[in-house]
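Quick one: structure tokens for this chain, please?
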Amino acid sequence: MRTEALFRALADPTRLRIMRLLGSMELAVGEIAQVLGQSQPRVSRHIGILCDAELAERRREGSWIFLRAASDPQGMAPVRSDIARLLARTETIDPGFAEQCEADRQKLAEIRAARELQAQEYFAEHAHDWDELRRLHSSDENVESALAEALGEGRLGRLLDIGTGTGRMAELFAEKADHIVALDKSLAMLRVARAKLQHISADRVEVVQGDFTSLPFSPDSFDTVLFHQVLHFANSPAAALYEAARVTSPGGRIAIVDFAAHQREELREKHAHARLGFADGHMRDLLEDAGFEPTAPISLDDGEIGIKIWVAQRRRAAERTFA
């Protein structure tokens, strides 16, 4: 039945066009309808057939439904790769199909440009708040350089960027990771991240909505987990780190970039900070309780508030402890 469903899914020109589009990036169902010039209900029916054949998969993000090429359902990855190569080859011998695909790509480029404009508008609206925070600590360049050095030269494997925000960290480490999941709770920030990351191949990066207290992933899913200026938003950092430990593979690493302990109470009201940074001893206890073995922290003290980088290795099953 799977073989029959597969070939039935490919026996339609619209679905072939959708497969070509998904080779470029993850797209909302409404965006696919826009590119194809078809109604959303009609496109949804085509998408249902592709998903039933395990060639594509849906993902909800708020009220939007996104579609991407299926990851690897029950060993189907080689088949999907063969289909992608076949469709690319078909463009070289079928002028009509090639013309249609090129038109689709041009419309897709317009969607990408619209995403980038939306991201720029969001940045402009919130630039003052972010600039105010940046002035309090070491420069982004210094922090990124120190984090890259802390993680070392080796591969990062499967990387989870928790609270991805603009997607900057996912972009920074894209070349060192085998696969990236950029996660954020905010739909607005996810759209910014999607614009920033859209130049990365769709099969190497996922943008996912989720909360750090209940990560939508199986245990031992990631080799590297990153919290960049996120943990101070957690009412229970212990709970967030327990969840991070659950999805980190044994021997995998966690990296936390956050404020050192400080007394700037105004950040609670102005920027919704639940914690005023972290002392080294407190962070060490949090990491150990979650099942990590921490290394010596790195300090960046050239701002009004210090920045700390804590890196730790997953060592054992965690006992759930809350602080």
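The mean pLDDT is 87.
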